[in-house]
Amino acid sequence: MRNAILSFILILVPYGLLASDLGLGFIEVDKDSPLELFRQKNDKQRERYLQLPQRPVMDLFSALDYERDYKWFKPQAISVTLQKCLIKVTQVEDDWIQVETNLETKEKMWIDGHRHINIYSWEEILKKYCMVRAIESENIKSEPTINSTTIQMTTLNDYFNVVEVTGDWIKIATNRVWEHLAPNGRLENGWIKWKSDDQIKVKLYFDIDTRGNR
Predict the structure, then answer these.
(1) Are residues 95 and 142 located together in one domain of the fold?
(2) How far apart are CA 152 and CA 140, in angstroms?
(3) Is the CB of residue 119 less than 8 Å from the CB of residue 24?
(4) pLDDT digits 0-9 by tens, 134-192
C-alpha cells in the first residue's frame, strides 16, 4: 500500500465553525491513540471504535485483511505500515469534533473533544510531511501563476514532495523513492495547484521515505 503523510502543528478552530469541502483541518490517529466515534454529538454509546495495527503491516495479505475489517473507514490518508492515518475535520461544536470517516460515501461521525485532540492545517501537512499525486493531469508551471511557462504535464505515475506552499499553489520535486516510475524523469523544481475553488486537486500520501530524504 502506497499511502500518505503526517505529524502536525496545532491550529485554533472557533467552536461552531462549519467546513468547506476542504474541511477545517485534520486529526492524526496512530497505533497509540485509538478513537471512539459517535453517531451524534453528546451520544453516550459509541458507534465505531478505530484501532490501527499495533505492529507494522508489511505484507499485502495482512493489509487486505485490515481493509476488509475496516471497510467502513476510508480516511484522507492511511498507512498500515507506518500505523498512522489522517482524518478530515468538518465541524467543531460544543467540545465535539465532527470528522469524515469515509471519503467515498461522505459519512461523518463525532469525536468527544474533551480529550486532548490536535487539529492541523492543510498547509502544514503539505509543506512539511506530504507526498502528493495530482488527481488529474495538471500543468506543471515554472512559477505559481497560470500564465507562467508550462514545464510538463503530471501523470498518475508522478509522486512529488512539497517544497513550498503559496496560496493555492505548491512547489514540487519528484519523490526519490518513486522517481523510477516518472515517465518524464525526475523533476527538481515546478509548481502545481493543490486546490481550486475549495476543490482538492491532489491525493495525499505518507512520505514512504521516513528518513526524511527527498
Answers:
(1) no
(2) 5
(3) yes
(4) 999 999 999 999 999 999 999 989 999 999 999 999 999 998 888 888 888 899 899 99
